[in-house]
Amino acid sequence: MNFGRRLRGEWLLDPAITYLNHGTVGATPRRVLEAQRAIQDEVERQPSRFLLRELAAVSSGNPGGGRPRMRVAADAVGAFVQADGNDLVFVDNATTGANAVLRGFPFAPGDEVLVSDLGYGGVTNAAVYAARERGAAVRTVVLEPPFSAGAIADAFERAVGPRTRVAIVDHITADTALLLPLAEIAARLRRLGVAVLADGAHAPGSVALDVPSLGCDWYTANLHKWALVPRSSGFLWTSPERQATTHAPVISWGLDQGYTTEFDLVGTRDPSAHLAAPAAFAFIEELGGLPAMHAYMHELAWTGARLLAERWGTPLETPRDLLGPMVTVMAPADAGSTAEDASRLRDRLLFDDQIEVKVHACRGRVYLRVSAQVYNELADFEQLADAVARRC
């Protein structure tokens, strides 16, 4: 299937808006939303049977017979990320998965959790909270340009202290959109006795993913971004040796009935987003499959990034080997330097120029993080380049 603007009709996105912000909260295709609504309708026909007998394996078993619905969906997600579905549980989002790990980790007074200065703020806050509740501390590794895979792995390794117990490593950083060498970082840290929690919020659907091969202890990610699953849906993969001590952040009827059951049944909630994951994966195959999508998105991000940097006269700080389907480009100096300047530019681009894109401030400059989804094309980047140039 040909990619580009011709695909916009497959989404409910406002056709008047140039949407270059897919990475923030995702955008669900029409037919995946239709599949979710069909699941919701099925729930409403027999709510008690669906939610209490068929959804999860509880102490009384599964009176409806067959594999619980949450496990069937988990098997599909497992296949999507090259993992065993029995090692994977659903969470609302990557931040929830990180909380499950950090809130349950047995930190002792004086222990440390390692984060990076490019980590996602919500997950870093979870680390701060978990550490201070146990008398532990947070240590921060600083990642600065010029970026390279080797320099990033070295920085993580050098930052490990004698009491570092857990490191949180982004697979793709939130603001800077850097594709970190996660497997190399994890190998080095685990050799030093440090457990690794990977924040893969942006990875499923955006890069080739084989979760077990990365060598992490936990991998938490969103499905409602690049994997095209409805909001809100994410997963937490846990290595088999960590499952007995990894608990759901909401304890309910699944307590002491195993890792997957504990997460699958955490009270009454709408499970339709998770259960619609197979429909999203089917739509991805209909679009041509992940390899074709990755090739298009990554090439568009790289070509678009060079276009923006050249037009604005700013350096492109991301090397191609650390680039996925998102790219962060420095705005012209006249864009300002503060969070208020970034917010002002972001709003003017949306309300005056009809362009939705993430804008943020970092280290005294304003940056734009641009997402290249299959419904985008180079003309969208050109429109953004012109709009920013007019304002700066």
List keywords for this structure.
single chain, 392 residues, alpha/beta, Aspartate Aminotransferase, domain 1, 2 domains
Summarize the structure in words.
Strand 3, helix 6 and strand 4 (137-141) form a beta-alpha-beta unit. The strands form 3 sheets. A 7-stranded mixed β-sheet has the order 2-8-7-6-5-3-4, sandwiched between helices. The longest helix has 23 residues, at 290-312. With 392 residues, the chain is an alpha/beta fold. The two termini are 38 Å apart. It has 2 domains: 5-30 and 289-391, Aspartate Aminotransferase, domain 1, CATH 3.90.1150; 45-277, Type I PLP-dependent aspartate aminotransferase-like (Major domain) (Aspartate Aminotransferase, domain 2, 3-Layer(aba) Sandwich), CATH 3.40.640.10. The protein is built from 14 helices and 12 strands.
